[in-house]
Amino acid sequence: MSDRDGGSGDSADPDGGSGTVVSDGGSAADIDEERLYEIVHDAVEDAILGVVGTLLLLGVGVVLLSSGVTAVLGATSPAMSGLGVVVFLFGLGAVFEGLRGVLPVGRWV
User: Fold this and answer.
1) Is the dihedral of CA 65, 68, 72, 74 positive or negative?
2) Measured between alpha carbons, how far is 50 from 24 in angstroms, rounded to an integer?
3) Alpha-carbon Rg of the chain, whole angstroms?
4) Which residue has the higher pLDDT, 53 or 10?
5) How confident is the model at residue 2 (pLDDT cuts 50, 70, 90)?
């Protein structure tokens, strides 16, 4: 007897429940098709919005990065140069924030 048996004599139903046994050995969930459609629809919608949001954030970050570099290189005064550095840093932050979900920092190291 293993820990998965749970003391029941039927090895196909490890939980010992009375639900329908499915091919992977578990029990079928008691959920209707309409509720399952809503769950899958919401999950797909969240995933698509996450991708669009990440791409927009990366796009804004790249524009800010390039604007900051252009402002620093074309600066005629220290104030303009400082403003370019600030814009560049905001762009760098936006790019890193956009990549945070795609490439976790723990994997970079």
Assistant:
1) positive
2) 32
3) 27
4) 53
5) very low
Tokens of 28: 């079928």
C-beta of residue 89 within 8 angstroms of C-beta of residue 71: no
Q: Which two tokens stand for residue 74?
A: 């074309």
Q: Where are the domains of the chain?
A: 1-30, 33-108
Alpha carbon 24 to its chain centroid, in Å, reads 28
Instruction: Give the tokens for residue 66.
Output: 């390039």
Burial class (CB in 10 A: 0-12, 13-18, 19+), 73: exposed
The structure tokens listed for 96 are 């890193």
What is the C-alpha to C-alpha distance for residues 95 and 25, in angstroms, rounded to an integer? 45
- Express each pLDDT in 45-99 by its tens digit: 999 998 999 899 999 999 999 999 999 999 899 999 999 999 999 999 999 888 8
Write down the H helix ranges in 1-109.
33-73, 78-102, 105-108
Other beta carbons less than 10 A from residue 91's beta carbon: 20
